[in-house]
Design brief:
Blueprint lengths: L8 E2 L8 E5 H7 L9 E2 L2 E8 L2 E5 L2 E5 L3 E5 L5 E5 L4 E7 L1 H5 L7 H13 L2 E3 L2 H19 L5 H21 L9 H16 L6 H8 L3 H12 L3 H19 L4 H7 L5 H12 L3 H6 L15
Parallel strand pairs: 1-3
Antiparallel strand pairs: 2-9, 4-7, 4-9, 5-6, 5-8, 7-10
Helix pairs in contact: 3-5, 3-6, 4-5, 6-8, 7-8, 9-11
Length: 300
Amino acid sequence: MKEASIIPIMKFDNGGIPFKICTISSLREEQPENYHLAHSHDYYELTWLTDGTGKLFSDLKEYSLYKNLMYFIKPNQVHQLLLSGDAQGFMLAFKDSFINLGAHEFDLTCQSSLFQLFSHMQVLYVQKEMVSDMLEIMIKMIKEFKNEFSFKAQLLRRYFKIFLIYVSRQFESRKENTHHSRETELTQRFMEFLEKYFREKKMVADYADHLCITPNYLNGIVKKNTGFSAGHLIRQRVVLEAKRMCRYSDAGMKEIAYNLGFVDSSHFSKFFKAVSGMNFSDFKKAGINYSLLSAQGLIA
């Protein structure tokens, strides 16, 4: 059986460093015609709306966007963005390799901040007292991105790290500040491993073996850092991908089951109902017709 396709995946197209920054205005002019349709990326994306309004549909959830709201998109995360005609702001796109370049500069604390932002948050309101400082950094990054001077990548990484520090401060006041430790690092590694191998590996023991710890210990630290056990997150990740494929492609249950590593569709059907609480066929029938979104007064 052929592997079922999901939705268009946009590839990182910057020929130089694995980092890109632009304004929403320039993005609107350069973007492909189907950019406003449901799609995913093979890179991280951070967008800050400094003016205007919009709606973000991400993994079957809807978010209202407004001035000084920031949203975060992970690689392979299905989303659709609809913005008002007067929308202004900035978009940052980058790959893991940008963070890993010059690892001595991008320390574990910075990577942990990224993990927190892209794993636990979807949208974030930028506090007014930080707007001017963050705008200044954005403008410096755009200026540096456009030039061809030496040490361009190094300077961009430094600006980016400073910007992430400001962003991280926005949510520190909303949750108890957890000191970076081996447990949080292991949780981060589990989440990264899960994102790569959820189709093939569905047992907590698979991930625990990879991290050289016991399944019980993995369940405990993951629940401590995310609020859910590792087993719960594994099951939810598999069902999320099934919902994505069901909603955004014409793949049938057999194709989706095959794509997600199930030996037969009946096993997948039972798994889907047990985790999501509803039959696969009922979920498919209840699907939202995203083609109607453009008629709701928003334009991409």
